[in-house]
Amino acid sequence: MTSKQLIQRTKSLITTETLKKDFLSLGLKRGEVAMVHSSLRSLGWVAGGEIAVVQALMEAVTNEGTIVMPAQTTHNTDPQYWQHPPVPEDWWPGIRYMMPAYLPDITPTLGMGRIAETFRTFPDVKRSPHPSSSFTAWGKHADLIITDHSLDFAFGEQSPLARLYELDGYVLFIGTDYSTCTAMHLGEFRSNDGRNSFKQGSAMMENGERVWKTYQELEESSELFNEIGSSFEKKGEVINGKVAQSTCKLIKIRPLVDFTSRYFNNLSTQ
């Protein structure tokens, strides 16, 4: 969609103030903790674009709350697993040897969208140290959420997701669906469905030097997340609403993670 088409389908001017009002009406209150998954174009044409969206989120929760976004860098992983697109096998050793190290202040996100990438660059936004599956956070609980992010099992008990669960935070979808819901990976991790772990690798800094570091990850089933989310919504624990022209959902993380874990456990016994 071109900018002209986006303007033509936008019904009225969207600004930081109108977005803030809509976020508050949806239920994102002062002091809340929320992980945000977003599509900028779903909102319509926004004066100030992604910067206005980030500012509206921050103003809605204030510095008494916390905003978190995924900041993954999946291009900094072992090329043997790349599928979209794959690279020739004879390139793999060179990629492992030459891939620039993950640098939290510099390395851009990949596939997270313009809002998440812009959020990464805002003052006082902090980023976790994981070289491929990092998170960014701003606000009262930012340090608690991003500190001590384990290299092994990036979505497990020593991860920002587990801290969000402990804080009884929310997931906010802005024009996205459950396929983007990183929090559901914590439910996968906590299930006892017998899934396998595998060895992953990334370039990172260690003791001041660039190294290729290997670590353990768990097989994922995110292709089932929309199916799981649809079942979860039958429980009636989802706030649906509109922000600007975007269809949005606001969901407590704890019940969603717990439901996801039970869902995978049930699948394993069928």
From TrEMBL:
Pfam families in the cross-refs: Antibiotic_NAT
Catalytic activity reported: a 2-deoxystreptamine antibiotic + acetyl-CoA = an N(3)-acetyl-2-deoxystreptamine antibiotic + CoA + H(+)
Enzyme nomenclature, EC number: 2.3.1.-
One Gene Ontology molecular-function label: aminoglycoside 3-N-acetyltransferase activity
Keyword set, alphabetical order: Acyltransferase, Antibiotic resistance, Transferase
Highest rank taxon of the organism: Bacteria
GO terms for biological process, alphabetical: response to antibiotic
Family that this chain belongs to: Belongs to the antibiotic N-acetyltransferase family.
Name of the featured protein: Aminoglycoside N(3)-acetyltransferase
